[in-house]
Amino acid sequence: AQKVTQAQTEISVVEKEDVTLDCVYETRDTTYYLFWYKQPPSGELVFLIRRNSFDEQNEISGRYSWNFQKSTSSFNFTITASQVVDSAVYFCALSEPGAGTASKLTFGTGTRLQVTL
Amino acid sequence: GAVVSQHPSWVICKSGTSVKIECRSLDFQATTMFWYRQFPKQSLMLMATSNEGSKATYEQGVEKDKFLINHASLTLSTLTVTSAHPEDSSFYICSAREQQSSRAQFFGPGTRLTVL
To answer: What digits encode the pLDDT tens for the residues A99-110?
Structure first.
């Protein structure tokens, strides 16, 4: 069975601080996809990144960066120079390969990030 | 990017009534749509997988007779909560997987259901 663990329930930082959100996953599949989503107070999930299990290159997108370590089954997300607008709940998710078109997402419990001035 | 809409965005209903929630993919075709439920301050839990033209696949513990799903076209799936009760109050979110996509799901804005 697949499992995603986000051990940090809530994180509070002051604006301009860097913050890392942890994500650890469990799966028996050799092929899988990992995702990060942002859920602001409005509730709508915003897609941030998708990474497949064969690509361990770290990725940077503006102030966001992701570190995928297959050896430790982790897919951590770092926000550099955080801003108040980054305040949201962040979910890490894992997708099984699925047969046909099915690709179920297993979500972690989410990390609530609060960025204050 | 791919856009998914949901209607209504919020609904309040009396106990015992049925509520229909629509999920539409606006600029792409989705052979598969997913329905999630999210209770306050909790994670998203998959309720069912909806495939166009066939019966939905429900997750364990989800009552198929209570949560009716119809996916009649490549751009529309509906979730009907039948005989709603206060414990059904939740945030219902749909997602759609683009037909040509490699696993990315795009989420709708969610529907907040309150059953009095």
So the answer is: 444 478 899 999
